[in-house]
């Protein structure tokens, strides 16, 4: 598929309607033109030889290590440019791996340096359920977890084998946020994303410190009223990767689309209960209004059609030091095409996306290190790469079929 470069977020006519409030039910962000950005390229290989990597992150413990999830069920450590031979954790025997299933999420407790706790999200072998488990690092070896320390927090049945979500992130509030897809198949046949009594098609928010297996934060939007207490936001199809701006606490979500549109959603820090519109809308476009969505919907801050890519990979607001001119800019990508885009925010306005780079990589995820520098995860290439300047002539593009989102 040929790429056409920069894609406008929405047509001028739809933009006018959104600003005029004529698209019923939508609460829309305002968009503005963005300033020119510097060329950003990637090819500094930090780790290679990985088996279908889907995430890279850090432990926040000052060790400068990177932790990489391999979808079949292992977590590897990258230290001083080398992948350690012994896995940090190996739970392949528990994981159903294939397609969109596998070991999908990893988050370290904010107090990991003291308590040694970390959390994983995986698809359980046998029934395909999503499992959220806590593990502990070995008290004798910081490079190895205790496999027998597994403590189950949450099990969520999955009606189909796709749209598992899988991302785990601790917010600045110390709460654990969990991304859940709509349960799979196509078109959300069970209408889970709009069902406030289902955990599917949602962002969940739990307190891992106040109770066992977990507590419910009192300010979650459905506490004390109809709806599942764990829900923080709804109306999502497959929020494969989301992140918090480490400076502001704002959340940005890459929600994988159905057959025509991919979207980026925004949730300001401290705001809860937003409804992003799936399955009534795919991006800003009507998909299925029967039954109708409930309440005011929140429009995406960006969308792109399947002429530009087929599976969005949510990224991060850049807060590193390598590229001062990118500070505060959100960087995201498309898995199937390798495009990397940027969005800028100024006050309450968002820019149209800027195409930073057309890469040959199948970008399954981004990741931050302790200093806020960004990495990309190359799924088929089995590599972790740092955002860094290189010779663009060394890159050749290859088309990949997405493993997520369809």
């Amino acid at each position: 598929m040929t790429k056409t470069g920069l894609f406008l977020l929405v047509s001028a006519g739809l933009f006018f309607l959104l600003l005029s409030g004529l698209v019923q039910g939508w609460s829309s962000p305002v968009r503005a033109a963005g300033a020119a950005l510097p060329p950003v390229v990637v090819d500094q290989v930090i780790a290679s030889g990985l088996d279908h990597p889907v995430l890279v992150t850090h432990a926040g413990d000052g060790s400068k290590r990177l932790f990489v999830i391999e979808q079949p069920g292992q977590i590897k450590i990258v230290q001083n440019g080398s992948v350690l031979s012994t896995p940090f954790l190996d739970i392949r025997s528990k994981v159903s791996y294939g397609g969109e299933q596998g070991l999908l999420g990893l988050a370290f407790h904010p107090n990991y340096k003291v308590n040694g706790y970390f959390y994983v999200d995986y698809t359980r072998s046998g029934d395909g359920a999503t499992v959220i488990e806590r593990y502990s690092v070995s008290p004798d070896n910081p490079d190895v977890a205790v496999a027998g320390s597994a403590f189950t927090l949450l099990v969520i049945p999955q009606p189909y084998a796709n749209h598992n979500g899988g991302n785990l992130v601790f917010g600045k509030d110390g709460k654990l946020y969990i991304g859940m897809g709509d349960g799979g198949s196509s078109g959300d046949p069970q209408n889970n994303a709009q069902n406030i009594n289902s955990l599917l098609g949602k962002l969940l928010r739990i307190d891992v410190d106040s109770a066992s297996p977990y507590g419910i934060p009192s300010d979650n939007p459905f506490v004390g009223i109809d709806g599942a207490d764990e829900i923080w936001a709804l109306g999502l199809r497959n929020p494969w990767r989301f992140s918090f701006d480490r400076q502001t606490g704002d959340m940005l979500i890459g929600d994988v689309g159905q057959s025509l549109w991919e979207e980026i959603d925004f949730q300001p820090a401290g705001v809860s209960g937003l409804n992003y519109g799936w399955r009534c809308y795919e991006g800003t476009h009507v998909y299925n209004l029967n039954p109708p969505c409930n309440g005011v919907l929140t429009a995406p801050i960006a969308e792109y059609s399947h002429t530009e890519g087929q599976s969005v990979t949510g990224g991060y607001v850049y807060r590193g030091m390598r590229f001062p001119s990118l500070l505060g800019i959100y960087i995201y990508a498309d898995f199937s095409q390798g495009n990397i885009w940027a969005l800028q925010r100024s006050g309450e306005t968002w820019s149209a996306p800027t195409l930073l780079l057309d890469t040959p990589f199948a970008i399954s995820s981004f990741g931050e290190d302790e200093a806020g520098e960004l990495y990309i995860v190359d799924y088929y290439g089995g590599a972790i790469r740092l955002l860094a300047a290189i010779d663009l002539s060394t890159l050749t593009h290859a088309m990949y079929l997405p493993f997520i989102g369809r």
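The longest helix spans residues 12-20. The CA atoms of residues 18 and 28 lie 6 Å apart.
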